[in-house]
Amino acid sequence: QVQFVESGGGLVQPGGSLRLSCAASGFSLGDYAIGWFRQAPGKEREGVSYISANGGSTAYADSAKGRFTISRDNAKNIIYLQMNSLKPEDTAVYFCARRTRPVLITQRLDPRFFGSWGQGTQVTVSS
To answer: What are the beta bridge partners of residue 21?
Structure first.
């Protein structure tokens, strides 16, 4: 079955870095655009970053631009999210998911257009 397993989260000080991984199985990763999302306590899930099926197109939330980098290795069935200059407001559970239907450019970070969610990995940014 389709499955995503996120890893790489943890506790990091402000200004630090983490690299999240999203391991995919049960389908051909190269056929799907993938998104990274996050959800902080008491808040709605929000899009962080997006990468097209072939990796040629990416998108970032304003909060992630210049600090986060998404990449993918379709041969290894893994999506990465490199997060630098982390801030306390980045604290959340981070999820990956695959796009389930065609989207407009403005919808690339909308979680309503993604499915097969993983369990997430906790990122805590605190001194």
So the answer is: 7, 80
Burial of 79 (0-12, 13-18, 19+ CB in 10 A): buried
| DSSP secondary structure code for residue 14 in this structure | T
Averaged pLDDT, 14-22: 98
Residue 4 pairs in a beta bridge with 24
For 103-127, what is the mean pLDDT? 94
Spatial neighbors of 53 by CB under 8 A, at least 6 apart, are 30, 31, 32, 33
Strand partners, 46: 38
Are 82 and 48 in contact by the 8 Å Cβ rule? The answer is: no
Q: Which two tokens stand for residue 90?
A: 């980045």
Percent of the chain with pLDDT over 70: 100
Average pLDDT, stretch 1-11? 96
